[in-house]
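RECORD TYPE: protein structure
NAME: Transcriptional regulator, IclR family
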Amino acid sequence: MEQIIENLSGLPNGAASGSGAQAVERALQLLSIVGRAAEKGIALGDVVAESGLNKPTARRLLMALMRSRLVEQDELTRRYYLGGELYVLGMLASRRHGLLEMAGESLRRLSGGSADTSFVSMRRDDYAVCLHREEGTHPVRTHALQTGDQNPLGVGAGSLAMLAALPDQEIEAIIGRIEGVIAVQYPGYSPEIIRADVARARESGYALNPGRVIANSWGIGMAILLPDGRLAGALSIAAIDSRMGETRQKELAGLLRQEVERVQAKLVTLFSSEKPVPRKTPQAVRPRTPEPV
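PREDICTED:
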């Protein structure tokens, strides 16, 4: 929170706390204004008019919100939208309208039909976060992923499925940022391996982790997309290697595809009241913050 206040006020931590609090209040006001614009987005001039702030102040606060990924700006239209971090926080906090709630029945069907453990995950910056783990009935279970665990994108089946669903340029940017973490913490991976895994996932239609995180623990995953094509998350199934032969991979991929389609249909219903403006190459989280105008 101190870092956010510092970004908003332009003052060092602990200095002029009253000014910092005022900046936070103003930023939250702008966040609410951007939120009311929903999928249509809002221009800077309209933000200024609605907020009563002068243009330089509104620009500075919007820039701070963009650095925190609470707001994003469309590169083509220059309009402002709620950012990917708000979506992540909402998913983590809400069981009523979040991805976790929407995927609950699907996880139960996946684990019931496969007898193996299923997961729902979502992206947070350059990482995948496991929102829930649904146990299967098979007596031998994997321990590769627990609720709340996070791995760099590309590490693990659901994580790889999400990475493969992103544009190529964004994938390369992510690999560049996580390369150091991969080298230190994930000996089964390298940038070259991740790129090859992405290519295979796109070709086959599902992501496969052949025991690279934990030996003998395999996983298969598939991305979930929002109605506008942005990444929402992923469903995945984990099992011991003897239960992940090629024939069964295709069977599990079929189960995953059915449940991904069901979750995506729920997302369509959720967003059906909105009429989004077409946007160029939408992304879940933008790697760079464009200069507002």
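COMMENT: The longest strand covers residues 231-240.
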